[in-house]
Amino acid sequence: MKQLIIIADMEGASGIFNENSSWIWNGSDDWREHGRECITSDALAVVNAAIDFGVDDILLYDGHFAGNPEFNIILEKLPPIVRVFDVSNRCFDWRRIRGQAVTNPFGIITFGQHARFGEDNAYFAHTIQSPPIKSLFWNGIHIAEIGSAVLSFHDVPYLANIGCAASMREALELSDKILTIPVKEMAKGWEPSPQETYSIIYDGVTKALHNANNTTGIFVGDELHRFSMELCDGCFFETSTNITWKGTIENTKATWDAPSIEIGLELFNYVRRLIKSR
Ligand SMILES: [Zn+2]
Hints:
Blueprint: E1 3-8, H1 29-53, E2 57-62, E3 82-84, H2 94-99, E4 107-113, E5 133-138, E6 141-142, H3 145-152, E7 158-164, H4 168-174, E8 179-184, H5 194-210, E9 225-231, E10 235-237, E11 247-249, E12 253-258, H6 261-272, E13 275-277
Parallel strand pairs: 1-2, 1-4, 2-3, 4-7, 7-8
Antiparallel strand pairs: 5-6, 5-9, 9-12, 10-13, 11-12
The chain binds zinc ion.
């Protein structure tokens, strides 16, 4: 069996730019009428390329506006081969998500992806939620949504990243063997429609699947995993709470060590709960 893992966000979808930013607001009329069509077009390009290649099982995680049960991708438009991960309200429950995939999926592809907070020439750049989060580091690499996803599947070949051209920097820092498939590029003023990017995505994914043997998962080692998170101006950590893990919480910076990626990413959720704004 060839199982493919596909991880979607929405800020990096085709056809959504600064002028029509309301299309990414999950729940709004513009999102319903226009935005969902954009990310669904990208999803279909990925899925159809995978089916034509011979993938026979596709598991989708749609993580934009996690916490809200309503999917961004119009699931009824996808072929029945696509299944969604069973997580409450689409929450970032990475261990639960990883546990629902087979031990050795064929590969993982990220799409609809945006750049990290602070990246230049980027559409809707942020790190999970900015503000309050300015950066999240794992062993020296600034990770946001792409990193959280692919590190949770670090033992699975990372095949391709699709989205804003500026999102490619995070993806390539995690694995320089991936195929990058930009669908918009602010630096060049390149803003194609989803109809135009459909074949770009389809062709890119086809190539990435054929190249799967030359890609790898992400080497994480089995030593210490050091995480740190910094906050934007105006935000701070509640430091009066006793923490029950090994870590340091300062005014605007927290660091914590974990014996595995999985545990480190889970602790992130606990550290995040200590964030306050002035
Ligand atoms: Zn998003």
